[in-house]
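Please review this one:
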Amino acid sequence: MKILFAAGAMLALCAPAFAFDPTIAEIVANMKPKAMVDTRDVAALMKGSERWCYDEENGSCAWSDVYLDVSDAGPRVETSSEYWDDYNMYIVDKAEFQQDRYVCEYGYDWTPSIRLTRRSDGTPVNDRELDTFRVQLANNFGIDKPDCYDYLFVRADPEANTITLLQRTWSDFVKDEGSDTPVTLHFDAADANTLTLRAD
């Protein structure tokens, strides 16, 4: 038994550094390409991931999400994106799960949460300058129809510790054709921290 235990320990040490945890691995095992991901599994992926990188190209994201908290009702998420070429903008938004399929925005006012950093050097925008941006965006804030999203499974890469989904957008539950976006879910914190935002 000691020999078997020692052999098992050696195998564990030789295993790849990256591997999905059991909850994520079970989701992946039950998925096939183009399969719909139901909201229970979406919630688990949100909880287990470090960052969702949309339309990833060579480690850069068109925008990204970090899920701060996920309940049975829905997630609270920090979304980051390029803003006016000169800034990165960060907002905290809320959404809700609907019909075991959709993640839906519902008009939560995220404008007080706005943070900005300068793309040139990463320094934060503060005080009156930040308040001006918040007021401008608050004046334009409003959602006529809720945006909802669903997700199709694309692939998993256990060695890279990533999963790729296809996000589809629905406006008032009518599909927004042409808006499908691949999103790479990163489960390793160090890897997620190297991702950048690009100005498209």
